[in-house]
Structure formats: structure tokens, C-alpha cells
Specification:
Chain lengths: ~140, ~240
């Protein structure tokens, strides 16, 4: 159960991060370009929007779902634990794709996008451990 | 109660998340900095007291590319990079300010191509070479307005050449000027001036020598207010 508490707490970092990115995107006040190319390239790229919806907003929804499912799993809802695993693994694959885009297509990294990828990776590890613990018990 | 607890926690987080997002979109984070901007000066007091002294910096390329009257009471000096997306967003904002304030506002553009942008120097050169035929601002507008068309291309030279044709330049002369010492020197002098004034990123703009906070710069209403303050202050001096 402690693992699900950790997952819920970690997902809050992702939630805050993606809300920040959504606000940046929606207000159109992208961050300043600095000596090293970065966020403004990524956030103003065509990949930052999926079917008219800012990708960051989808991310915020995903992290909120992770938080909800992890909270429910903490309180013993088994179906939530299974859904959580599926969701987090999907998010992990999406994160890999986004890192690929930043590295090889946009040629610029955005530290807030990388933070999101790090959070998702951490969530993946936690959820996999939680599944293993559940199977063993 | 125990059964409801997870749902209560989830609802609280949802409320906080939506609330903070809503709050952040309607109040721009720079709003506190606007307060620090010059307020309309009282008639007996010069506006410059209690404000930081204007930065002077090393000289940039001369003559600078400017819009508006030379003796305008408000002067915005922008350090920009043509490949930087927020600089592209600032372009229509400054254009609007120029239209609204007319001769009360002078706008200067300084080249500040960032090393992280592979086409920034090429774009700066294209604009400066157009400037040798007195068409800097036309090229400046074309490059910014079509930023998305060239920013991710491998070879941008034919694209800029197309703009040169469109704005009616002597293209052969423009091509020669592109690689001229004079164009390179202008970019160097502008960038060196920017560095001497502490410019770390783009767009950075100075209003009568004092840096405009980024959030103010990117919000037309706030920018209009600080420009108006400068104009008011000069009238009571």
C-alpha cells in the first residue's frame, strides 16, 4: 500500500508540472529563448498540440487520473490498481515517444517536459514494484 | 467516512489543480513587477527618482534600425533573434505599439542571434543585408511572420532569397551583402551591445534604458501602460 501512496505523491509533481506547461501554452506566453535552445522551441512546435488540445493538458488529465487511481488503490480498490498499471505503462511509452521527438525531430529539449518524463519513469518503476508485491502476497 | 475518504482527497486535489490553473491563466505572473514600473510622476517631482539609472552599454551598429521619431519620449530597444518563437510573438505586439503611439514611441531592433539557433545568424544577415537597401523592416516582418516556414528547414537560403524578391530588393546586391564584412560587423556590434547590457535571452527589451520584465513585454495591455507612463513622465518633466 505504501507504494501506492508514493505513486500518488509522485503523480502530484507531474500534475503540477503539466499544469504549468498548460498555462504557458494557453496564455501563449512561452518562455524566453536563452543562450541554450529549450522550452520555447518545444512548446511552440506542432507536436505540442494533439487534435486542437494542448498536449500538456492531456498530460495534466493523465497525472490527475494516476493520482485518483493510486489513491483508490491505497484504499484497497483492486480494479484501480490494475487500471493504474495500464495507464502508467501507456504514459511511459508516450514519454519515450516525446523524448524521441525532442531529441531527433525538434532538436531541442525542454526541461519541464523532461521532468514529466522523469516523473512517469518513476511512476512506472513504483507501479511495477507494487504489482510484484501484490502477486507475492 | 472511511469509504468516502479517497473520493474526498481526489476532489480536493481536483479543486486545487483546476483552481490554480484558472488563477494562473487570468493573472499573469509578472503583474507584481508592473507595480515597480514608473508610475505617473507627480508634477513637482522628476520621474527618475527612485528608479534605477538607465543602462548605457557599449554602442551598437550605427545607424540603428528604428521606427518612430528620433526625439520620441519613449524608446523601446529590443534585442531579438529571428529564430526565437517568443520574439516572433513580440513582433506583432511592437508593431501594434508603433501604430498606436506613432511619433511618441521609438522602436529600435538590435540583432542578438543565439548560438542555439542554427539559422539565427543567417536570418539576421538576411535582414541586415536588406537594410543596406533601406528595407530592413520589410525583411524583418517577412522573416518573423513566416518563422514557422523556415525555422525547421535544413537550407534556408532559398527561402530568404524568395523574401528578398517579394519585397523588391536588388537580389544580386542583397546576396553579395549577405556575406559582407559590414553586415557581419553590424550583427557583432548589436550583440556586443546586448551583452554589455546584460542580455541573457531573447526577446529582451529596454524602455528608455531600463529592462522591461518579460511578462510585461509579452502582454500588450501591460506594455501599453508602461510606455504611456514614460510618455506621461516626460511631459511633466
Amino acid at each position: 500500500m505504501k507504494l501506492y501512496v508514493t505513486a500518488a505523491l509522485v503523480s502530484l509533481i507531474g500534475l503540477a508540472d503539466s499544469i504549468y506547461l498548460t498555462v504557458e501554452h494557453v496564455t501563449g506566453r512561452s518562455v524566453r529563448c536563452t543562450i541554450v535552445a529549450g522550452c520555447s522551441e518545444v512548446l511552440s512546435s506542432q507536436y505540442a498540440v494533439v487534435a486542437g488540445v494542448p498536449l500538456a493538458l492531456i498530460g495534466a488529465a493523465a497525472y490527475f487520473s494516476v493520482f485518483s487511481l493510486a489513491t483508490l488503490a491505497t484504499f484497497g480498490y483492486r480494479a484501480a490498481a490494475i487500471l493504474l498499471t495500464v495507464l502508467v505503462l501507456t504514459m511511459f511509452l508516450v514519454s519515450l515517444w516525446l523524448i524521441y521527438l525532442q531529441a531527433f525531430v525538434i532538436h531541442a529539449f525542454c526541461q519541464f517536459c523532461l521532468l514529466s518524463a522523469a516523473v512517469t519513469t518513476a511512476l512506472t518503476v513504483i507501479v511495477l514494484f507494487a504489482r510484484r508485491a501484490a502477486r507475492l502476497s | 467516512m472511511k469509504r468516502l475518504l479517497p473520493f474526498i482527497i481526489i476532489l480536493i486535489v481536483l479543486a486545487v489543480a483546476v483552481g490554480s490553473a484558472w488563477y494562473a491563466t487570468r493573472t499573469t505572473p509578472g503583474s507584481t513587477t508592473v507595480v515597480n514600473q514608473p508610475s505617473p510622476a507627480s508634477p513637482n517631482q522628476p520621474a527618475s527618482t527612485a528608479r534605477p539609472a538607465p543602462l548605457v552599454g557599449l554602442p551598437g551598429a550605427e545607424p540603428a534600425h528604428t521606427l518612430g521619431a528620433a526625439n520620441a519620449p519613449a524608446h523601446i530597444e529590443e534585442f531579438g533573434d529571428f529564430q526565437c518563437p517568443p520574439c516572433g510573438m513580440l513582433h506583432p505586439i511592437l508593431e501594434k505599439m508603433h501604430e498606436e503611439f506613432g511619433d511618441k514611441l521609438r522602436v529600435t531592433f538590435r540583432e542578438y542571434p543565439l548560438p542555439g539557433h542554427n539559422h539565427a545568424v543567417a536570418a539576421a544577415s538576411a535582414a541586415e543585408a536588406a537594410g543596406m537597401q533601406k528595407k530592413f523592416w520589410e525583411m524583418h516582418a517577412h522573416i518573423y511572420e513566416h518563422q514557422a516556414d523556415w525555422k525547421n528547414r535544413y537550407d534556408v537560403a532559398p527561402i530568404f532569397e524568395g523574401y528578398a524578391k517579394q519585397i523588391g530588393l536588388d537580389v544580386e546586391r542583397w546576396k553579395r551583402d549577405l556575406s559582407s564584412e559590414q553586415v557581419a560587423q553590424r550583427i557583432f556590434l548589436d550583440s556586443r551591445r546586448g551583452q554589455s547590457m546584460g542580455v541573457k535571452g531573447t526577446p529582451t527589451a529596454f524602455l528608455n534604458g531600463r529592462e522591461v520584465p518579460f511578462e510585461t513585454l509579452m502582454a500588450p495591455d501591460k506594455l501599453r501602460a508602461v510606455i504611456q507612463n514614460e510618455i506621461n513622465a516626460s511631459g511633466s518633466r
